[in-house]
Amino acid sequence: MVRVERLSFSYVVRGRRFPILKDIDFHLEKNGILCIIGPSGCGKTTLLFTIAGLRVPDGGSVWVDGVEVKAPRKKTAVIFQHFGLLPWENVYENIALGLKIRGVPRREIMRGVESTMEHFGITKLARKYPRHLSGGEKQRVAIARALVLKPDLLLLDEPFSAIDALTREALQEFVLRVWKEWSLTIIHVTHDIEEAVFLGTEIIVLGKDGRYDHHYTLPREKGEDFRDGPVFHDATVTMRDRMRRIVNESSL
Ligand SMILES: Nc1ncnc2c1ncn2[C@@H]1O[C@H](COP(=O)(O)OP(=O)(O)OP(=O)(O)O)[C@@H](O)[C@H]1O
Ligand SMILES: [Mg+2]
């Protein structure tokens, strides 16, 4: 579904080139969940934006569903770091935004937004503004806003970073439910190792200098008490060790 080939990317600031990603190579099957982890500033958001077609690589290419990504793609939805909800619009308008941009007729927008709100149990929040929502509610609204566009690829950029541990676990389970129900392919950026192991069918570790480091595969069906079992434990230990080495190597 997603193929990234020898991808490199630099930001150019006042004529100076700052290389961020180097030779990133991976592919993700349809209906997989790829988690990208790595220390702060290593280029996770940049990689996600390149896959979304919001950044143009200097070298290499990104392919989604057999087509090279050169601009934002209709069936790719992005949930930004801190959700990216518009504070001056209510929940209904926030969810309707993407459909409006696409010029969908009003009646169809109403039908789409109402049925999606109902699906996620947020109908009663329709007239509230983002500042009146809890972190968990905001996350549901952000997911509804993405899914009303009927995407096949969902890109999530650290959607749970500001949420307490228990709510976070409930939301991770919510993402897994949505993944199954909507048969999505997901790329999820996080710097939380446990989250990556819980959600991912694959995990990529990005190094501090934007090098792609390791690729792990995890079981798709994880079962109810996966978090308490040996696979979860072993994978988190391995991953933590890898991350520690990356951070140490880059600080030498
Ligand atoms: N628009 C920009 N112009 C120039 N440099 C940028 C720009 N956006 C990001 N950077 C730099 O590129 C590097 C990678 O940024 P990016 O946001 O991709 O990191 P990240 O891994 O998502 O970090 P975090 O975990 O903190 O969200 C950082 O050093 C950042 O300062
Ligand atoms: Mg980021």
The number of E-state strands comes to 10
Mean of pLDDT: 89
Estimated structural class: alpha/beta
CATH homologous superfamily designation of the largest domain = P-loop containing nucleotide triphosphate hydrolases
Low-confidence stretches: none
Number of helices: 7
Total tally of structural domains:
2
Radius of gyration: 18 Å
CATH architecture of the largest domain: 3-Layer(aba) Sandwich
Record the SSE blueprint.
Blueprint: E1 2-13, E2 16-28, E3 33-37, H1 44-52, E4 59-64, E5 67-68, E6 76-79, H2 91-101, H3 106-119, H4 135-147, E7 153-157, H5 165-181, E8 185-189, H6 193-199, E9 202-206, E10 212-217, H7 230-251
Parallel strand pairs: 3-8, 3-9, 6-7, 7-8
Antiparallel strand pairs: 1-2, 1-4, 4-5, 9-10
Bound molecules: adenosine-5'-triphosphate (ATP) and magnesium ion.
The site of adenosine-5'-triphosphate (ATP) has 12 residues, from strand 1 and helix 1.
